[in-house]
Amino acid sequence: MNAIKFAARAFIRQLKSGEVLVLIAAISLAVGALTAVGFLTDRISISIERQANELLAADLRIRSAEAIPEDWIKTASDMDLDSALTQTFPTVVYAQDNTALATIKAVSTQYPLRGNVRISEKQYGDEYIANSIPDINSVWVDGALLSRLQVKVGDSISIGNADFKIGAVLRYRPDQAIGFASLAPSILMNISAIVSTDLINEGSRVNYSLLVAGEEPSIEKYTKDLEGMLTDSARISDRTDSNERTNQAINRAQQFLSMTAIISILLSAIAIAMSARRFMRRRMDSVALMKSLGAKKQFVVYVMTLQLTMIGLVGVFLGCLMGFVVENSISSMLASLFAGDLPEPSLRPLKIGFLAAFILLPGFALPSLMQLSATSPLRVLRKDSLPIPPSQFIVAVTAISAIGLLLYYLIGDAYLLSIILIGAIVISGALYLVGRLLIVLLSQLRGNLGVSWRYGLANIARRGRESAIQIVAFGLGLTVLLLLSFIRNDLLIGWQETLNENTPNYFLINIQPKERAGVTNIFDEFDIAKPDFVPLVRARMSLINNEDVKSRSYPEERGQWMANREANLTWSNTINASNKIVEGEWWPENYSGTPLVSVEESAAIDMGVTIGDTLTFFVAGENVQATIANIRQVDWNSFQPNFFMVFSSNALESSPMTFITSLRLNNDQSDVFNKLLVSYPTISVVDLEPIVQQIQQIIDKVSLAIQIVFIFTMAAGVTVLFSAVHSTIDERRFESALLRALGMKKSMVLLSLLSEFSAIGLAAGLLAAIGSSILAWQITDRLFDLQYAFNLFLWLQGLFGGWVLVCFSGYLATRVAIKSSPIGVLRNN
Amino acid sequence: MSNIAPNKKNVLVIENVSKVVTSPEGPLTILSNINFIVTQGESVAIVGASGAGKSTLLGLMAGLDIASSGHIFLNDQDLTEMDEDQRAEVRAKNVGFVFQSFHLIPSLNALENVMLPLELNNKKSAKRYAQNILNQLGLKARVQHYPHQLSGGEKQRVAIARAFAAEPTILFADEPTGNLDTRTGENIMNTMFELNRNKQTTLILVTHDAKLASKCNREIVLDAGSLIKDSNT
Ligand SMILES: Nc1ncnc2c1ncn2[C@@H]1O[C@H](COP(=O)(O)OP(=O)(O)O)[C@@H](O)[C@H]1O
Ligand SMILES: [Mg+2]
Prior knowledge:
The complex is a heterodimer of chains A (about 850) and B (about 230).
Chain A: H1 2-17, H2 21-54, E1 60-64, H3 70-78, E2 82-95, E3 98-107, E4 118-120, E5 127-129, E6 138-142, H4 143-149, E7 156-159, E8 162-172, E9 186-190, H5 194-197, E10 207-213, H6 216-229, E11 235-238, H7 244-292, H8 297-334, H9 348-373, H10 392-411, H11 414-445, H12 451-462, H13 464-498, E12 506-511, H14 516-525, E13 534-544, E14 547-548, H15 557-564, E15 566-571, E16 579-584, E17 596-600, H16 601-607, E18 614-619, E19 622-634, E20 645-647, H17 649-652, E21 658-663, H18 671-679, E22 684-687, H19 689-726, H20 729-741, H21 746-783, H22 792-819
Parallel strand pairs in A: 3-9, 6-8, 15-20, 17-19
Antiparallel strand pairs in A: 1-10, 1-11, 2-3, 2-7, 2-10, 4-5, 4-8, 6-9, 7-8, 12-21, 12-22, 13-14, 13-15, 13-18, 13-21, 16-19, 17-20, 18-19
Chain B: E1 10-23, E2 26-39, E3 43-47, H1 54-61, E4 69-74, E5 77-78, H2 84-94, E6 95-98, H3 110-120, H4 126-136, H5 152-165, E7 170-174, H6 182-199, E8 202-206, H7 210-214, E9 218-223, E10 226-230
Helix pairs in contact in B: 3-4, 3-5, 4-5, 5-6
C-alpha cells in the first residue's frame, strides 16, 4: 500500500514536471498507430473480402443437383444469416421468329446477397442498380441475347410455356463470371415464375443454389454444421475457390497489410525501448536517494514496476483514443470510396494495442529495472557511480523475446516471424558494427572541417555507443520504411501491369476449327487484331503412372478433384508468355518424340506428380499417354487463356477440338458481337469485364489502404527518431547554452546539430537502402510471388529520406535545446 | 554615463540594474538597483552569501540574460538593447568565461575546446595558437585528451586556456575554485592572475573565498540582491 502511494505520488510529480511525457507519448503513439492501422486494415480487409464475395453474390454458396432442402434454409435463418435461392438451367427461348440458347437464372427476392444487379432501359443505355428482382411477369435479358433474338425492352419473349415481358437489359449480375458453366447469355427471372414455364421436371439439368451471407463467425459455424448434412451432389463454395485471379490479389493485399502492421509494431517497439531507457536513467538519482534513506531493493523494484504500469495504462488509454479518433476521421474520408459500405471494425486492434504496450514496456524496461535496483546509494555522493550496466546479451534477449511474443500472437506464422526477426537482428548487428566503424572514420575527418561540423561530428564520436545505437534505430526504421515502399511499389506495379489497356476483356469459346477463318474476317472488318486461336480438347484423366486416378491417393483434396473432373487440355510447341518454367525444360518447336505434357505448378503439387511421371487421358474414345516434361507457373492475372495441362503438339493434334481466344474490345466495338453471334450462333462470349472491374476495385482500395498505412508507419518512424534524439536532450540543452555563452550564434548551434543529424541520417539511410534491398529481394519472391527489381530511385529516396527524416525529427527534438537560455550555464548542473 | 575615470577606459558600466523574476508567490526581486563601473585591467571580486545574487549579476554583465531594468554597457555597447545573437557576438569578441564546474565540451578534446572561441572569431591559425597557450599552461601532454580523461585541476586549466585564448577584454569567473581542493585552487588562481596581468585583461571574479577576494584590487559585496559595499567608493 505504501509502495502504491509512493509510486502514485512520484508518477504525478513526473507528470507535472513533464518528465514522463516522452515515454507516455511514445507508448500512446505506438498504440495509436497500431490500433489505427489495425482498425483500418481490419475494415479494409473485411471490405475487400466482401468485394470478393460479390463474385459469389454471397459469402457462401451451396450448389446442388437437387432442390435445396428446407432445413438448410431454416438452419441459416436460425443463425441470423440471410439467404436466397437460385435455379440455373439452359433452355431455348423464342421471340418473334427467332430462337436462341439462354441460361435461365431464376432468383428469390433477396438476391443478390452481396453486390448489385445492374440493368438499363436500352441495350447500350445508362446502366443503374436494380433495387429488386423482376416481377413474375417480366424478365431481364442479356444484351447479346437481345441482338440474337432481334428484340428490345418492352417486347415479349417465350420461355417454356410462358410469355414474359422484357423488363430491362441485364447488364451485370455479381455471379455471372463463375466458371464457364453458364456459357449461354443469361435471363434473370423471378423464382416464383418458374412453375408457369413448366420447364422443371424429372431429368431436367437444373443447378440449384442456396446463397448465404452474414457475420463471419456465424458463416463459419454454418459451414461446419452443413458439412454434416450435405448430400452427395451438393458442394459448398466460398470466395476462396471462386476465382484464382481475385484470390491472388487479395492474398497479396492481406499479406501486405499484415506486414505493415508488423512493421509499425517494430518501429513502435524501438520508440518505446529508447524512451524507456532514458526514463530509467533519469530514475537513478531518486533510486539512489531512496536507497540511501534506507529503502530496500524489493521496495525499489516494486515502486518502479508500479510506476511503469501507471505510465503504460495512461499511454494505452491515450493511444487507443488516438487510434480511434484517427481511424474514424479517415474512415469518414474514405466512406465515399467504399460507397458507404465500410464495415464496422472489430475490437481486436484495441486488444493488440493493450498487449503491445504491456509486452513491450516490460520487455524493454526490465533490464534497466534490474540495473536500477542495483544502483548504489553512493550515487548520492558521486554522480558518476553508475551501476554495472546490464549485460547486452540480457537486454537483447528480453527485447527480442518481447517482440517475438507479440508478433507471434499477431501473425502466428513462424516462418514469416523468423524471417522478420532474423532480418531485424542481422540488420541491427550489421548496422551497429558499420555505425561504429563510421564513427571512427568521422572522427578522423573532423580535424579538417569548420567549427559547426567539427562539433556535430565530435558529438557523434563522443556518444560512440549511443550514436551507433541511434544509427541502428534510424537504420532499422528506415529499412522497414524502405522495404515497405519497395514492396508497395512492386505490388502496385505488378498489379498495374496486370490490368493495362491491353488486358483482354472477352473470351470467345466453342469456336469450331472451320469457323476460324470467318471469325478472323469479322475481326478484320471491325479493325480488331488477328486473334490467337488456342486449341481446347476435352478429356478425362484415367491413369497416373498406370494407376487408376479414382483409387490413387493425393496429397491434397484439390488434387483428387482435379484428377477426376473433366479437364480442358491444350497443345502447343511454344510456351505462352504468361507462363514460366520452374522445373525441367520446354520441348523444341519441331518436337516429334513420345508425347510430353507440361503441368501447372500448383496442380502438380496437389496431385502429387512430378517430372518423369506419366499421365493418361481418355480423349474421344482413345487413350493418350504423355510424360511430364516440365512444371510451369502461370500468371492468372494475364487474362490469357491458360491451362493446367499443355501437351506437345503431336499428342493431341488429331483429337477433336474447339478453339478459344481472348480479345480486347472497347465499348464502341460491341457491334462485333451482333455480327459474330448471328453468323456463328454456337460461339459463346464470356465477358471478363466484371472480373477485371472487381480486381481493379480491389486494387484501388488496397492501394489506398497502403498509402494510408504508409503514412502511419512514417509517423511511427518519426517517433522513433524523435525519442532517440530526445533521450540526449538534457546534455544538448546544456551544451547549447554553453556554446552560446562562449559566443556561438543560434544559427551556428543549429547548423552543428544538423551536421550531426545529417551524418547519422545519411549513414542510416545508406545502410537501410542496402538492408532493405536484401530483404525485399528475399521477401518479394517468397511472400508475394513478385519479381524483385532493383530500383535506384528508391535508394536515393532512402538516402534523401533518411537525411531529411533524421534532420527533421532531430530538429523537432532539439529545438528546445537551441532556445534554452545561456544563463543556464551559471546554474550548476 | 557618469563619473568617467580620467585615463582608464570603462570596460563595464552597470546603470540602475534590477532583475525581477516571477515566482509562484509573485514577483521576486533578485537584484535591485545596482550601479558600478569597471575600468580596463581592474580585478573585481564579487562576494556575498549564497543566494545573494552574484551569479545572476554575472550573467547579466556577460549578456547571458537580460536585466528587468537599467543598462549594461560592455565595451561601450549597450547589452540591454541587443538581441541574443548580437550579444553572442559581443561575447565571442570580448568575453572569456571560467566556471565552477569547468564546462568543457565533453565531445571535444582539450585542443578543440581551446580552439572553439578562436574559431568563433574566425582566427586563421586557431590550432597553432591554441596549442601554444596549452603548452604555456603545462598541458602539452594533454592536448589530445578528452575532458573525462582529465583531472579537475587539468580541466580548469584547459578552461582557463579557453577563456584567454581569444584575448578577451574581460574575463568572468564564477567560483572557479569551488570544485577544486585548496592547493589546486590556489595554483589555478595564481595562473589566472598572472595571465590577467600579462594580457591586461579585466577580471570579474565571483567567490566565497575571502583570501581569493583579497587578491583582487577591488571588492563588491552583495546581500539579498543589493550592493552593500564597493571597496572603490
Ligand atoms: N529564474 C529564477 N527564478 C526564481 N528564482 C531565481 C531565478 N534565478 C535566481 N533565482 C534566485 O535568486 C537568488 C540569487 O541566485 P544566484 O544569483 O544564483 O545567487 P548566488 O550566485 O549569489 O548564490 C537565489 O535565491 C535564487 O534561488
Ligand atoms: Mg552562484
